[in-house]
Amino acid sequence: MRAIQVKEYLKGPQDLIVSSFADPTPSADQYLIAIHATATNFFDLLQIRGKYQHQPPLPWISGSEFSGVVLSTPSASPSPAFKKGDRVFGAAQGGYATHICTTETALRSVPKGWGFVDAAGLMVTAPTSYGALVTRAGVKKGDYVLIHAAAGGVGLAAVQIAKAFGATVIATAGSARKLEVAKGFGADHAIDYNRKGWEEEVKKLTPRGRGVDIVYDPVGMVNTSLKCTAWNGRILVIGFAAGNIEKVAMNRVLLKNVSLVGLHWGMYTREEPETVEEVWRGLFRLMDEGKFRGTVYSDRTFSGLNSVGEALGMLGRRETWGKVVVSVPQDGQSKL
After folding, report:
1. Dihedral (CA of 267, 270, 273, 277) sign
2. I need a surface site. Which of 16, 126, 218, 292 has the fewest CB within 10 A?
3. What is the pTM of this model?
4. What angle do CA 144, 233, 145 make, to 5 degrees?
C-alpha cells in the first residue's frame, strides 16, 4: 500500500510525503477497499497541523473521503450489504492511500452512472447541504434562498438541492469565476459579497424587497445576512470558513422573528441514525432524477497521491471551487 502518513504535525500540505506500507488487514467487522479517488477537505489542513477537534494518535494516515472497489467483506458478517467488486464511496480516517479498512456504516454505493472521481466528493458535502436545507430549514417551492460561498463544495451541493425543491437561489462568492460556476450549477442570481452594499442587492431580488427566507452560511456571515433576511427567516449555521466565530446581534434576531438553525451533520450517526438514512434516500432520488450532479473542481486535474499536497495547498489558498478530488491509480500504474 502507498499512503500519506503523518508522524508529527506539519507546517502545511507541502510537507506531506507518500510512503510504502504493508497492505492493511481488516478486522472482523471491516471491509477492505481499493481506493480509486480521494477528496480533499479543509479539516485535513487543520488535522495535519494538529489544529482539528478530532486528532487521532500519531502516527496516522491523512485524508477522509474516498471512492473505490470492495476487495473483501467483513468476516463476521454472514450477509454484508456490499460484496466483493462493488463500487463504493465513503469517509473514514486514512483516505489518502491506495487501500483502506472501514465499517459498513461509513460506506454507500456509487450512484448509477457516476465515476469514482465524482463519487469521492459526496460523503461530506451532499448530506450536509441536504440535512440543512431540507431536514432543518424545510426548504420548499417559492422560497428565496441565499447561499454564501456558493461555489464551494457544500455551496454547490446546496445550490442544486434548493433548486430541486423549487426555490429561487441567490448565490454569493468572492470572484467572477466562482460566481460563474455557481450560475452554471443552477443559481438564479450571483452577487460578489466583497462588494459594499451586497445585502441591498439581495433584497432587491426578492418580492417587495422583503429579503430571503433561508440563508445558508458556511462562512460566518450571520450578522450581515440579517440585513437581508425576511420576517420568519431561517439562517442555517453550517461553518466558519472565514475563521472567526461571530458574536450575533440577538436583538435583530428577535425583531425580525428569525430562527438561527445549527447543523452538526457529523453527529447525526450517533444522535439520529434514522435521519441519516432519510437524507441519503432523498439525495439518491435527486441523483436518479438528474437534479444533483458531481461538484468536482475541473479547471485542472490531480492524479496520484503525490499531488495531494498541491491540491490541499490550492484548496487552502481559496484558488479552487467545488470539491477538489485526486484520482488514485491502482494495480501498479505509474502515478501512485
Report:
1. positive
2. 16
3. 0.94
4. 20
